[in-house]
């Protein structure tokens, strides 16, 4: 029998790192934390060597990035507002609201480390 899938974080972990969530946000966060866990497992083969706290923190960070993008900003990479002599400009870091791992997070999960290996191209015979 296969092990039961267990996400690296719960919506409670997310709330402790971000803010209190509404009921619908909790449901969404639960699914996104499962997705973030699977992305970590699929992307970083040495994820099991990371501490539980690191896995929780990274899964939460991924979901916060995703949930921070509201529907009104989805797909917007840059926005500018002008009122009289005042103007504001915004550039969004995750305009599509993707779940992703940053380079620093991959590094924390053991990714990006060079490994040496040897490959015999001669076929083994002399």
TrEMBL record:
Pfam families associated with the record: Phage_Gp19
Source superkingdom: Bacteria
Protein name: Phage protein
